[in-house]
Design goal:
The complex is a heterodimer of chains A (about 100) and B (about 230).
Chain A (H helix, E strand, L loop, with lengths): L2 H21 L3 H26 L3 H29 L15
Helix pairs in contact in A: 1-2, 2-3
Chain B lengths: L1 H21 L3 H21 L3 H26 L11 H24 L20 H9 L3 H22 L19 H4 L8 H4 L11 H10 L8
Helix pairs in contact in B: 1-2, 2-3
The chains are: A mainly alpha (about 100), B mainly alpha (about 230).
Chain lengths: ~100, ~230
């Protein structure tokens, strides 16, 4: 398969993830959609790595996976903290920092 | 043959992504993301990134998704509000924005004029994408990003513990909304300090030196007071 097909799948998944981040309200689902966007970037990186026959893109993909794991860790910690304090699990209600 | 596998995995990845973004129940959204991640691992295998595919299945579809499932089970899966975000107008605007983003990405990627995009990639080099090759790159050229990533993981672990820990001790049954710290002295039996030795049933050798114990002994036996 040509590299362009992989990039097409990557662009589609990234757009679906962006739509999910914009339309959903539960922070859990927003985190899941962020994972989608990060994984789309990973797919593009690995496709370009294959295109050039060079391993650098794969290293970058591993670093992106590490960053995604950290983001999940902190995000789920925030969700658990919100649940502990009996706050609504809804990003639209989190408006104390609006100013 | 590769084309068949590509279309199966690609359709699985896109269907999983649509499932994540549209399913109401967060638990099913997590399962759709697992489907998406497994399809993506198959795409990585087609791109000859063997180690990344294995790491994707083990780390993402294994560990991270288990964390998600635990948190969804803890918080409760029926948390999605009924009312759409900001009304139907904002929702439609979001979807239009995402469609425009997709069009822009197609123009940027497929219209970039790179000759490699219409080819199958560089000729296959034995050892490309194997754990050995990735490990050699990580420990030679990319040693600093590797160490920075490990430090970032440490900070994230500490941050998650700080964020999710229980604050303020137990809650007072009379006022469940207020934060309440139960004094340690209330929960200890009379004449104990709360040491580990007492916890395992050992006697406290200094219990007789406490003021309460001293006064009690003095009241019980006034003649013994001279001895002190």
């Amino acid at each position: 398969m040509n590299i362009g097909w992989y990039l097409t799948v990557s662009a589609l998944v990234f757009s679906i993830g962006a739509a999910g981040v914009l339309t959903r309200r539960s922070p859990l689902v927003i985190l899941l959609c962020l994972e989608l966007m990060l994984n789309a970037a990973n797919l593009a990186l690995i496709a370009f790595s294959r295109m050039w026959g060079n391993g650098d893109g794969q290293i970058f993909a591993i670093i992106v996976m590490v960053v995604a794991a950290c983001e999940v860790c902190i995000g789920l910690g925030l969700v658990v903290a919100m649940f502990r304090r009996r706050l609504p699990i809804d990003v639209d209600e989190m408006r104390e920092l609006h100013g | 043959m590769a084309a068949v596998f590509f279309f199966i995995a690609g359709i699985g990845a896109i269907a999983g992504a649509i499932g994540v973004a549209t399913v109401k129940n967060p638990f099913y959204a997590v399962l759709a993301l697992v489907c998406h991640l497994l399809s993506l691992a198959a795409l990585f295998l087609l791109l000859r990134a063997e180690f990344i595919a294995a790491a994707q299945v083990v780390v993402y579809a294994g560990a991270v998704m288990v964390l998600y499932v635990f948190v969804v089970a803890y918080v409760g899966s029926d948390t999605e509000p009924v009312r759409p975000a900001g009304g139907p107008g904002l929702r439609a605007a979001s979807i239009v924005f995402a469609a425009l983003l997709a069009v822009e990405l197609f123009i940027a990627v497929l219209g970039s004029g790179l000759k490699g995009i219409d080819a199958k990639g560089a000729p296959y080099n034995p050892g490309f994408g194997t754990p050995g090759a990735i490990g050699e790159l990580l420990l030679t050229r990319f040693l600093f990003p590797f160490e920075a990533a490990s430090f970032l993981l440490l900070m994230a672990a500490v941050g998650a513990v700080v964020l999710a820990r229980r604050r303020g001790g137990l809650s007072d049954p009379a006022h469940p909304d207020e934060e309440y710290v139960q004094p340690i002295a209330q929960s200890l039996p009379e004449g104990q300090f709360g040491t580990i030795a007492e916890g395992v049933g050992d006697t406290n050798p200094t219990a007789s030196l406490q003021p309460a114990a001293i006064t009690a002994r003095a009241e019980a036996d006034p003649d013994d007071e001279k001895g002190w």
